[in-house]
Each structure stands twice: as C-alpha cells, then as structure tokens.
Write a structure and sequence with these properties.
The protein has 113 residues and is mainly α. Helix 1 packs antiparallel against helix 3, helix 1 runs antiparallel to helix 5 and helix 3 packs antiparallel against helix 4. The N and C termini lie close together (11 Å).
C-alpha cells in the first residue's frame, strides 16, 4: 500500500502548483496549455478531480479506488501524446513521465511481498 501512497503524493506535488499556475494565468501555462479557453478549463477540472481523489484516498486508503485512479491517469496521459501529436509539448512530456512512474509503482505494488 505504501507504493500507492507515493503515487498519490506525486499527484498532489505536481497538481497543486499546476492548478495554482493555471488559476492565476502564469506565463508558463499559456506556453504549455495555450490561452485560457473552455477546453483548458475542462483540463483544469480534470486536474482538480484527480487532486481531490488523491487527497481523499490519502485519508481513506481504498486500494481498488487508488488503483482505478492511477489506471485512468495512465490511460489519459499516454493518450495525450496521440491526441496532441506533439511530443515536444511540456505537458505531453510530463504526462508520459508521470504515466511511466505510475505504471512502475503499480507494477511494484502488484509484486508478491
């Protein structure tokens, strides 16, 4: 279970500054996510949902829920490389890196003790 908690803390460590930056319109967010649009707002809502779920699962460590959250994150993060079609975009790069870390943590979690 400890490995899964590491994944949740990673979500929080990444999402808090990203959400704060998107909220205040930091310059780097315009370069990475584009101008403020409804689509960018939808992405921020997704990030807020993942942040809220990560905090909830730290307080209530429900293993199947955590695994489901991470699996969905891995799927959407990998798919972002195909939908954006630009592997040099910093959001795509970070998505693929986090997907790789989450995948590794899930593999570690599934290994027999």
């Amino acid at each position: 279970m400890t490995v899964l908690l590491v994944a949740l803390w990673l979500n929080i460590a990444v999402l808090v500054p990203v959400i704060a930056s998107l909220t205040v319109g930091a310059k780097w967010t315009v370069r990475a996510f584009g101008q403020a649009t409804p689509a960018r707002g939808i992405v921020m809502a997704q990030y807020l949902a993942i942040l809220a779920a990560s905090i909830l699962f730290l307080l209530w460590p429900l293993e199947p829920g955590i695994i489901t959250l991470l699996a969905i994150q891995i799927a959407y993060k990998v798919l972002s490389a195909f939908t954006v079609r630009v592997l040099t975009n910093p959001v795509v790069i970070s998505n693929l890196l986090i997907a790789a870390i989450h995948t590794g943590l899930l593999v570690l979690h599934s290994m027999p003790a």
